[in-house]
Amino acid sequence: MTKKEKNYDQIDYKIIQELSKDARKSVAKIARKIDVNERTVRRRIEKLIEDDTLRITTIVDPSSFGYNAIADINLKVDEAVYNDFVEECKADPNVCYIATGWGKANLSIETRFLDNENMYNFINKTLPETEGVEVINYFIIPKIIYNIDEWLPVKEDFKEE
Known about the structure:
It comes from Alkalibacterium putridalgicola. GO terms for molecular function: sequence-specific DNA binding. One of its GO terms (biological process) is response to amino acid. This is Lrp/AsnC family transcriptional regulator, regulator for asnA, asnC and gidA. This protein is an alpha+beta fold. The chain has two domains: 10-58, Orthogonal Bundle (Arc Repressor Mutant, subunit A); 62-141, Lrp/AsnC effector binding domain/regulation of amino acid metabolism (RAM) domain (Alpha-Beta Plaits). Helix content is 35%, strand content 19%. It contains five helices and four strands; from the N terminus they run H-H-H-E-H-E-E-H-E. It has helices at 10-21, 27-34, 38-50, 79-91, 116-126; strands spanning 69-77, 95-100, 107-113, 133-141. A hairpin with a 6-residue loop joins strand 2 and strand 3. Helix 1 packs across helix 2 (27-34) and helix 2 (27-34) packs across helix 3.
């Protein structure tokens, strides 16, 4: 894996830090807080979004809706059904994360269910009965300690001003 060049500087770092505290914070407030011109802040945010470095989005906590039965499932999916299966997973409201992989498992999904019975049926009936799909292993997740929506780059990831 190649190391990414540091395309962002300390102003970008400060903007990201401010938005991570409150993504609804106005450009004017961010500009005042970091002592930078409003237009500069607006332009920088637009660039971060355009570069797919930053997404300003709503994050919904599934547990607020009772989706507390969580499993990470590693699957081996035959090439002939791979794309169709991925589309089925995207349409399934219980699947909240899909990633391709290397090794014995070539697809990883994170699932959330309202109860253990639905999770059990999905892992032990639905998936094994799906043509071209094999469950390699799975992990029942009793508690998420740290999630990607909490991750932030460190100051050293940004060029000095």
